[in-house]
Amino acid sequence: VQLQASGGGLVQAGGSLRLSCAASGSIFSINLVGWYRQAPGKQRELDAIITRGGSTNYADSVKGRFTISRDNAENTVYLQMNSLKPEDTAVYFCKADLVYKAYWGKGTQVTVSS
Known about the structure:
Helices cover 0% and strands 55% of the residues. The protein is mainly β.
């Protein structure tokens, strides 16, 4: 499985961005996809996941602001980020979980200015 994350950028506080995670390879083996963030000097943390069945779950810090979704035809998972805050500044990664392995995409930088 190969993952390509994109869509990051610089945005003002209160603005929006949509991140994309395009998957290729053995995508039929993917059980769930998650979006994670890693801020400078901090550990990587989970923001949102979407399962094969379409169930979603969010970290408390992004509930009501971020929405994870997928387009099966495009083999892409999205993270719509609204009401962005400076503390959302981080490198964002997508990860695909299979039964026995997990794959990470390269990160995309999100910078929120105050």
